[in-house]
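Table S2 (continued). Query chain:
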Amino acid sequence: MFTADDFGLSPALNQAVALAHSFGLLRNASLMPAAPGSGRALALARQFPGLCLGVHLTLIQGRAVLPPSALPRLVDGEGRFPSDPVGTGWRYFFDTRLLPGIRRELAAQIEAVLAAGLPVWHLNGHLNLHLHPRLAPLVVDLAREYGVPALRLAREDWRTTAALAPGNPFPKAALGIIFGVLSRQARALAADAGLVVNDHLFGLTNPGRITEAYLVNLVPRLQPGLTEIYAHPALAADPTLVQAAPGYRRLEEFQALVSPRLQEALARQGVEVTDFREVSEKRRRAAGQFSP
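Corresponding output:
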């Protein structure tokens, strides 16, 4: 299944999500509730009810939904989270006094989508921070509280990505190993909560470069189980997107999601394209059929 992250970040990204969903393989989108274009993204989600909407929980490189006065020491005076991933990760780990405010903010982000009259089918995090050892228990608990049935795990076979996108193997290996460990811990929490999780993932170690060529070559290497492939498509790299990630090949990622060549490759391999809603509903029906 294919997911577009950062839904709501900019008009160019919002338009790409709508078009890729209408004409391509994209069935999941992860919305940033406090992003500049989140209002338009919510309107598009209502316009396209087949789009399986999730919340892209944001605690870094973005803004909070709650006002700064409600999140002391967590955001600056303009409601912005820190931007440094390493420093922020360590801070969230050691300063446990931040956790109550973090939980309130994450709940507010979920509630912002629900208040728009839209169901939330899956949760993940910006930079996959939802798998942080201090944060994953909060996220799983909130999924259970709000009835969100699915959670992303970032377990990527980095060796496959390194073979398909050579260059800089050490960062790929480091990310793959670190998030593999974090995902194992989160998987246990998710299993206890009865959440749907993906078995495999691509997009972590080759971010912003999920191109047609990469995906067509990836398809024959897919393993059995539920694979999530996430991208950051856009019709153009506007200033907001350039500032967020200047090296991302966003138009190429959009073109991949509407590629007939990719659709043919999936059909040849017998790969079924799905989404978190469909998988969750199948599990619910199966549980109902076999329940006493």
